[in-house]
Design brief:
This protein is α/β, with parallel strands linked by helices. 51% of the residues lie in helices and 11% in strands. It contains 5 helices and 5 strands; from the N terminus they run βαβαβαββαα. Helix 1 runs parallel beside helix 5.
């Protein structure tokens, strides 16, 4: 198992969480970043870099839903920096929600509300990663 982080779409705080958990749990982390400014080539380059090292035991962290859609079947899990596990069941809804946000951007949050939202995202992201790295041992409860 390893954590593959899309550095181009993952915020610094979530990247640091991945690095910290990687050290604490002794799981390798791979950071992937695009090399080209040409948008189509850039996305293909990132996709190819990830596909080259991806196994069914890996966790991918990305906020690029189109990339996530291509990786879902080949990874243990694909997680957004907001702490959402991206699956075949929810990817179309996530893409549609993103389309709606681009079409009608939400109003800006107050500084306090934005800080609370960010804190909630960090907590959700950390919890999801921990659950994926060390799933609950259910034999204890049987």
């Amino acid at each position: 198992m390893k954590i593959i982080v899309d550095y181009d779409t993952t915020p610094r705080d979530q990247r640091k969480i991945c690095e910290t958990l990687s050290k604490e749990c002794q799981i390798p982390t791979e950071g992937i970043s695009g090399l080209s400014s040409d948008d189509d080539h850039y996305k293909e380059d990132r996709r190819a870099q990830i596909a080259e090292i991806l196994t069914l035991e890996d966790i991918v962290v990305t906020d690029d839903f189109e990339l996530a859609q291509d990786l879902i079947e080949n990874a243990l899990a694909v997680v957004s920096p907001e702490g959402i596990v991206i699956t075949q069941a929810n990817i179309n809804n996530l893409l549609y929600e993103r389309y709606l946000k681009e079409k009608n951007p939400p109003k800006a949050l107050s500084r306090e509300a934005a800080a609370r939202c960010h804190h909630d995202e960090i907590d959700r992201f950390t919890t999801i990663l921990l659950d994926l790295i060390a799933p609950l041992d259910t034999t204890y409860y049987e």
